[in-house]
Amino acid sequence: MFYRPAEGHGLPHNPFNAVVTPRPIGWISTRAADGSENLAPYSFFNAVAYVPPQVMFSSTSAKPDRDGTKDSVANIRETGVFCVNVVEYAMRDPMNRSSGPWPREIDEFTEAGIERTDCATIACSRVAGAPANLECRLTQIVELPGAANFAVFGEVTGIHIRDDILVDGMVDVTRYRPLARMGYRDYAVVNEVFELRRPGE
C-alpha cells in the first residue's frame, strides 16, 4: 500500500510508529524549579552525537496544566537539566506505570514504587539500579510542526553504568535485556546480539 499521511491511511490504527521500530526508550527524570520530580518514558529517543555525547527525545502531546506540553518538557524549561534512565526488561511494569496521565503533583517515582538516587553532575534524581543513566544539560528545545511537538536536546555530562553489565570492559546488553518500543501497544526485548564488521575494518 501507499498513503499520504495528510490524507489518512484507512487502517484501524496508525502504522507510522509500527514501521519505525524498534525504538529505544528514554525514561526521562526531571526536577521542577519547586523541587517536585517527574519520571516518564519516551520512545522518540536516541543518541545523536559522540563528541560531546548528546541525546534527544521528543514529546508529542500536552497536558491542560502545562502550557502546551507535558511535565518533562515543562520541568526542563525551568531547570535546564534531565536524566535519561535506560529501561531493562525487569523494569517494564514500573516503566509502564510511570507513563500514566498523572497530574503534575503526582511523583511517578513514588506512584510506580521506583527507588531514586541523586545524580552526580546535575540537580535531578535518577532511577537507582537502572542499567545506565545519562545525566544531561539542556542544549536546545526545538518546536516541531504540529501541536505540542517538541524535540529536546541535551549534552551528556555524567554516565552511570551498573557494574554487573560490564564484561571484559564492554557493556553486555544481554545482561540486562533492554526494552524497546514497537508500534501500537507492542514492545520488544533484546535477548541476543550478533556482530557485523564494516568493510575495511
Automatic annotation (TrEMBL):
Record-annotated Flavin reductase like domain positions: 18-181
InterPro entries linked: Flavin_Rdtase-like_dom, Split_barrel_FMN-bd
The organism's place on the tree of life at top rank: Bacteria
Pfam families noted in UniProt: Flavin_Reduct
Record Gene3D superfamilies: Electron Transport, Fmn-binding Protein, Chain A
Protein name listed in UniProt: Flavin reductase (DIM6/NTAB) family NADH-FMN oxidoreductase RutF
Species name: Rhodovulum iodosum
